Task: inverse folding
């Protein structure tokens, strides 16, 4: 992308710049270049000479209309604050429900659910070692379990993010519950938070349940089904977080995410859906690292790019298709085990970067996230952090407050350029699906991860309390970690066994057979999953059936 | 001919995050060791079989969620298979009281986030040397 | 270096004891004292396994294919061992042995044994000691021993020395890549496999390879098939295993049939270089199979010109076969040795088409005299039936073998009595 020439700058500014440059060099001769995580050089000072004020309309514009750099809505956080959506999940459905109601009571405005790792792997609770159950997420295998999880939650009015990868059994259970409660599916709102199978294939493997071609099919079916039956539901969340956490630089994470979104859009179009029919329901999910300005620039560049892509590449005409809606989570990778309370400061910095980046939904990590699954105490501080930033620091009184900053605009342009370069590389591979099949993306991310590790090992990148400013710590000061009550989990297992014994096995088998037939043929697989959920099939049964028909998902591991 | 340490780097349990284990594996290779690398979600019996066939000196388990909770089962399985001399280390997120339990179960050492790769490599080398002597002295 | 005591291990190896096999492989890999002797002690138990070499460019899909083959072998009730060789880093000497990544599930089966080896700098991607490891696994009773190696190129003919059947795996689209077709890859293949058969390019690659093969002369009367597999869809794998079996049925279980002259001379071992200069052995169509310190293996397929007036293999031909192994083993320590006495006993007749293998082992060696025992067995027989046994004594001279130059005139390495 060619940098536009700055509109005429007064001679006095140029003279001052020359004076300052000489003075700076005299005081700091031979200073090594500083580069951010994406490899972009960062100067000590930015001035009007670095941006072209004459291009405000073309490059920045006003929030709520193209180019969208400053925000996707006219009012942004003043009109509607970001959704406080804290991820939670632990233990049994009853545990989850208690924690959820507590959070909603304390100010969180939406529901998010993290299932147990056993669920991620596609297993029912009786298929894994019991000590692993419920340690990092809630153990929900049936519609009944989901009913308990969401007791007291008005499904017609509460946005629910389900962190369940395809085939989205948890959503199917939730829809079954909605049906029981007489809530029309047209009112059910939320997001399939882990629908991005490409990112799972690359980086977050345990979510990857079904082989790549099968995943492609199920996701497309999911989009089509939600389009028709649950129009308020966001079936696609393209997840940059996984790749950034696997080591991708912020520019790579944004580039690979946008490329993935393009791939999904192309697949939906190939399946006969019109762009404006599904693009308004595409959402994104990003990591926010502590590289503050880089993250702000990353989000602004991404927003600007996506708006251009959907119009130019897909011909989308509905403005709702042009909006880059994203949820962001503060990055757990920047948190340390050493002096864990320092993490509160880190999360605060990350959250501010995300807010200034114009997110629509935010999760702040608890300070003890890196020690194991967070405590309730830590989770409360995380929610309070958001409230403090919004209502005490007044961070949202002004839309895109960093807009116009010589540095931030210059960096936004540079990030956009870098992102486009990487996206061109992916295009040269034949698109994101082909690029991950061949291992290209995995290798690239692996290199970035190793490069970052080398910088940490050498001390070039400081980690406070780890490679610098380390102090002797009192180990007993670290809080005890929550584990699910073994007795309660055993009771949960026993109840599950009893429930299976008394459910209609014939009905379940019929639904599983129908699911298998749908997978073999061309019927909508997600529709069959929902039917199976209503018929009393378990999560494990549904996943096993689809894996058998469509192939067991083995991610490509590249060392 | 020098005996290069032969190390298995693997993950058991449910979690799939393997960024750390891949970095450690690459570093051990750069330190001159021969590293057998597996994908995550290895079953315990498969790990024992692999350790036996590959005649590994050290097993490095990466655990970022709570998969460390089943490491004692692995230690028991290794003992039952006559592989007690194989050194086992665990790297990742392990709370303090769980660390004590692991060491009691026979794990040689737990490495926490922020551990330096150089320290890990040096320790693995020592552990491998001990393991080799024990294996061939019998 | 810790001493490894082989002790009771031979019996444990014959039983297929996993731990004993693994320890023995470690000892062989590190050339610990006693390890080679263990393999020699098990020589009688070897010769039964079908050794299949699998090679191909990185990314061709070898490991995924092997995983599928393992599953097929398990279905057929076969015991399989895999030796997977990965390259050592030239900088650090270490290695990441990642072949098990794609084989993990298949490798967990009881009937499967997988061992990863680092190439440790040996050109050709085959760890120097792989041959002995393969012999060990053979003696341990595996039906199939698969050797998988890195890359493909001119130096990959080394794998052909090791295997009964050589599979070369090509990714789709190979037709465009002339580099990969260069000397070696097509020469050594007994079966060509185009992997990732679900790709659109795969059929075209099969066609290209068949055309290239049609231009080549057949070797040993074997038509090299070009097969298509899709490990992702589980297709073509059973047919591949059948083709490999058909090959060994047709061409025999005597390994290492590749002509020594196909291997660049710089990469041949010193004894292989000597063998290449044995004009009479070549004349009798006796092939060098393997050799090392104090041991040698030569092979011969009995053909029409080897027969006597009774229609069985001429005793002189059997003597020549055994004697060439004798000569090589006795000259393997670097000093010129001359035969002074030899004796042969014939136990069973050999017929046209039989694949005979002569193995020489060192019985004793002193400063000036050494004795060798050579057994000639019918290698294609399951039990390796003993055809003839030969003993010979040499006188060890003070002269050393020179490093042979490519164009040096052929010198007899033995004085005639």
Result:
């Amino acid at each position: 992308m060619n940098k536009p020439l700055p509109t005429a700058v007064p001679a006095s500014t140029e003279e001052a710049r020359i004076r300052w440059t000489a003075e700076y060099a005299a005081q700091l001769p031979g200073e090594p270049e500083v580069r951010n995580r994406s490899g972009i050089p960062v100067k000590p000072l930015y001035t009007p000479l670095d941006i072209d004020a004459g291009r405000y309309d073309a490059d920045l514009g006003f929030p709520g209309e193209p180019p969208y750099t400053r925000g996707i809505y006219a009012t942004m956080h003043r009109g509607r604050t970001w959704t406080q959506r804290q991820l939670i999940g632990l233990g049994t459905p009853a545990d989850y429900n208690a924690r959820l109601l507590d959070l909603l009571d304390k100010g969180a405005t939406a529901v998010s659910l993290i299932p147990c790792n056993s669920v991620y792997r596609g297993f029912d609770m009786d298929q894994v070692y019991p000590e692993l159950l419920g340690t990092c997420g809630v153990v929900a295998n049936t519609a009944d379990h989901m009913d308990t999880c969401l007791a007291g939650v008005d499904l017609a009015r509460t946005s629910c993010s389900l962190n369940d990868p395809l085939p989205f059994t948890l959503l199917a259970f939730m829809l079954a519950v909605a049906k029981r409660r007489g809530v029309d599916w047209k009112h059910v709102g939320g997001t399939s938070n882990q629908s991005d199978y490409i990112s799972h294939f690359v980086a977050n493997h345990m979510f990857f349940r079904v082989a790549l071609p099968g995943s492609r099919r199920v996701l497309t079916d999911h989009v089509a089904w939600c389009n028709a039956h649950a129009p308020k539901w966001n079936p696609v969340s393209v997840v940059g977080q996984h790749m950034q956490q696997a080591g991708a630089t912020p520019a790579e994470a944004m580039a690979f995410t946008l490329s993935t979104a393009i791939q999904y859009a192309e697949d939906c179009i190939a399946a006969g859906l019109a762009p404006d029919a599904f693009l308004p329901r595409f959402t994104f999910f990003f990591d926010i690292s502590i590289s503050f300005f880089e993250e702000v620039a990353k989000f602004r560049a991404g927003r600007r790019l996506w708006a251009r892509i959907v119009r130019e590449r897909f011909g989308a005409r509905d403005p709702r298709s042009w909006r880059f809606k994203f949820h962001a989570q503060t990055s757990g990778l920047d948190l340390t085990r050493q002096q864990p309370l320092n993490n509160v400061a880190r999360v605060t910095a990350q959250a501010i970067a995300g807010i200034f980046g114009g997110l629509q939904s935010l999760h702040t990590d608890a300070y003890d996230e890196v020690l194991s699954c967070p405590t309730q105490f830590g989770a409360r501080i995380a929610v309070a952090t958001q409230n403090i930033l919004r209502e005490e620091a007044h961070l949202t009184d002004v839309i895109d407050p960093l807009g116009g900053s010589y540095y931030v605009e210059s960096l936004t342009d540079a990030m956009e350029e870098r992102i486009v370069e990487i996206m061109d590389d992916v295009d040269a591979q034949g698109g994101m699906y082909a690029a991950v099949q061949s291992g290209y993306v995995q290798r690239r991310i692996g290199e970035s991860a190793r490069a970052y590790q080398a910088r940490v090992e050498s001390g070039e990148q400081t980690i406070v309390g780890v490679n610098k400013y380390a102090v002797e710590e009192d180990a007993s000061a670290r809080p005890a970690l929550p584990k699910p009550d073994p007795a309660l989990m055993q009771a949960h297992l026993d109840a599950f066994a009893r429930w299976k014994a008394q459910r209609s096995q014939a009905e379940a088998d019929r639904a599983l057979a129908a699911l298998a037939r749908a997978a073999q043929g061309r019927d909508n697989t997600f529709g069959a999953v929902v039917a199976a959920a209503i018929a009393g099939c378990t999560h494990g049964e549904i996943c096993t059936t689809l894996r058998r028909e469509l192939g067991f998902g083995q991610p490509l591991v590249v060392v | 001919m020098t005996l290069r340490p032969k190390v298995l780097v693997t993950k058991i349990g449910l979690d799939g995050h393997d960024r750390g284990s891949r970095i450690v594996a690459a570093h051990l290779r750069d330190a001159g060791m021969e590293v057998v690398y597996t994908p995550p979600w290895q079953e315990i019996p498969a790990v024992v079989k692999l350790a036996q066939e590959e005649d590994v000196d050290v097993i490095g388990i990466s655990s970022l969620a709570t998969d460390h909770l089943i490491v004692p089962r692995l230690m028991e399985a290794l003992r039952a298979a006559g592989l007690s001399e194989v050194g086992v280390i665990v790297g990742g997120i392990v709370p303090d009281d769980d660390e004590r339990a692991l060491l009691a179960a026979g794990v040689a050492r737990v490495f926490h986030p922020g551990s330096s790769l150089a320290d890990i490599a040096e320790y693995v080398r020592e552990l491998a040397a001990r393991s080799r002597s024990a294996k061939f002295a019998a | 270096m810790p001493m490894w005591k082989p002790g009771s291990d031979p019996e444990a190896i014959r039983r297929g004891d996993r731990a004993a096999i693994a320890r023995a492989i470690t000892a062989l890999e590190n050339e610990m004292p006693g390890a080679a002797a263990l393999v020699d002690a098990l020589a009688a138990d070897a010769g039964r396994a079908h050794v299949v070499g699998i090679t191909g460019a990185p990314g061709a899909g070898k490991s995924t294919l092997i995983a599928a083959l393992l599953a097929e072998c398990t279905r057929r009730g076969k015991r399989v061992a895999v030796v997977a060789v990965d390259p050592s880093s030239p900088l650090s000497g270490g290695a990441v042995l990642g072949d098990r990544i794609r084989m993990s599930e298949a490798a967990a089966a009881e009937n499967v044994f997988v061992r990863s080896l680092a190439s440790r700098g040996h050109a050709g991607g085959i760890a120097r000691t792989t041959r002995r490891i393969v012999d060990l696994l053979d003696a341990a009773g595996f039906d199939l021993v698969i050797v998988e190696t890195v890359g493909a190129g001119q130096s990959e003919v080394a794998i052909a020395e090791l295997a009964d059947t050589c599979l070369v795996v090509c990714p789709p689209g190979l037709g465009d890549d002339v580099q990969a077709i260069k000397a070696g890859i097509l020469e050594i293949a007994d079966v060509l496999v185009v992997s990732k058969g679900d790709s659109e390019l795969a059929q075209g690659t099969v066609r290209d390879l068949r055309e290239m093969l049609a231009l080549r002369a057949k070797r040993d009367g074997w038509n090299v098939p070009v097969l298509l597999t899709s490990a992702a869809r589980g297709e073509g794998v059973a047919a591949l295993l059948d083709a490999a079996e058909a090959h060994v049925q047709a061409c025999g279980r005597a390994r290492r049939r590749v002509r020594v002259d196909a291997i660049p001379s710089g990469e041949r071992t010193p004894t292989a270089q000597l063998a290449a200069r044995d004009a009479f052995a070549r004349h009798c169509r006796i092939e060098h199979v393997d050799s090392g310190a104090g041991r040698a293996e030569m092979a011969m397929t009995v053909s029409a010109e080897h027969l006597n007036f009774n229609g069985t293999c001429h005793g002189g031909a059997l003597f020549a076969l055994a004697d060439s192994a004798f000569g090589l083993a006795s000259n393997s320590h670097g000093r010129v040795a001359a035969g002074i006495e030899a004796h042969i006993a014939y136990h069973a007749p050999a017929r046209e088409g039989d694949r005979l293998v002569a193995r020489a082992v060192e019985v004793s060696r002193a400063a000036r005299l050494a004795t060798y025992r050579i057994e000639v067995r019918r290698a294609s027989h399951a039990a390796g039936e003993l055809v003839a046994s030969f003993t010979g004594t040499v006188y060890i001279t003070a002269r050393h073998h020179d490093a042979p130059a490519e164009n040096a005139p052929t010198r007899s390495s033995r004085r005639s009595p």
The two ends of chain A are 34 Å apart (CA to CA). The mean pLDDT of chain A is 91. Residues 284 and 475 of chain A are 39 Å apart (CA to CA). The first strand of chain A starts at residue 34 and ends at 35.
